[in-house]
Amino acid sequence: MRFSVITPSFRNSDWLKLCIASVADQAVEVEHIVQDAGSDDGTLDWLPGDPRVQAFVERDQGMYDAVNRGLRRAQGDILSYLNCDEQYLPGALQSVQQFFRDNPRVEILFADFVVVDGAGKYLFHRKVQTPLLYHTWVSHLATFTCATFFRRSLIADEGLFFDAGLKDVGDGDWMLRVLRRKTPMAVMRRFTSVFTSTGENMSARPNARRERLALLNSAPLWARRLKPLLVLHHRLRRLMGGIYFQKPFTYALYTSGSPKQRVEQKVDRPNFKWKI
User: Fold this and answer.
1) What distance in Å separates the CA atoms of residue 211 and residue 217, rounded to the nearest whole number?
2) What span, in angstroms and rounded, lies between the C-alpha atoms of 246 and 34?
3) Which residue ranges form the domains of the chain, and what is each CATH number?
4) Alpha helix (H) ranges present in 181-258?
5) What pLDDT, on the 0 to 100 scale, is given for residue 202?
6) What global pTM score does this model have?
7) What is the CA radius of gyration of the chain?
């Protein structure tokens, strides 16, 4: 079972180096496709010669267009996309591989992830549940792409690419289409990934707010009016699923101070509250 990991890249040289290192040490068969839009920050001085990746340098129409280009090139059985400021944790892809082998009917797998600051220090973590259609539509996407994995058949057979016309909420739009299709999905209760809060994440930009509002307004009127109940139901699901509880744990990642060797971080007081 081979993996294809897609990374859209533009002017993120330092973060990209850490991302690539985190994929390269997974001890599974993986092709890491980096779609660079023509970075002028020094990325192209080293990226084309990095043997750990397949680098494609071409202009694109934005992040989701870059991801789609990578997906079209992907040859793996299991696909994912990992942004430059994200990483996989040790053994993540081995666990994902085993899960898909043990659960042949599952087409999409979600896992938990850790959010860190620019130095790799723990901020909080997120445990996920399988998303529900109307909650996702009127509230927020309860999963994260850095910890989402799916079978190639979704692309090869169903053509479920991202909407390249969107710049910031393509993940949510894609998930709504997946949910309408009633795609078999599951959760693996394990931290597989790291998301870095760099202060420049696209979700905080004005265009993201505009696109989120447009997505909300496309929902049925009854769902918009019942949003408080849908959110309450979501929170009760999380409570009943034990999502709000986590024992102390450790994780290991690459940092700007240690780009060639993972640094272990201990979390004595886990925190699930989203604070960026």
Assistant:
1) 10
2) 34
3) 3-267 (3.90.550.10)
4) 206-217, 221-225, 227-240
5) 55
6) 0.95
7) 18
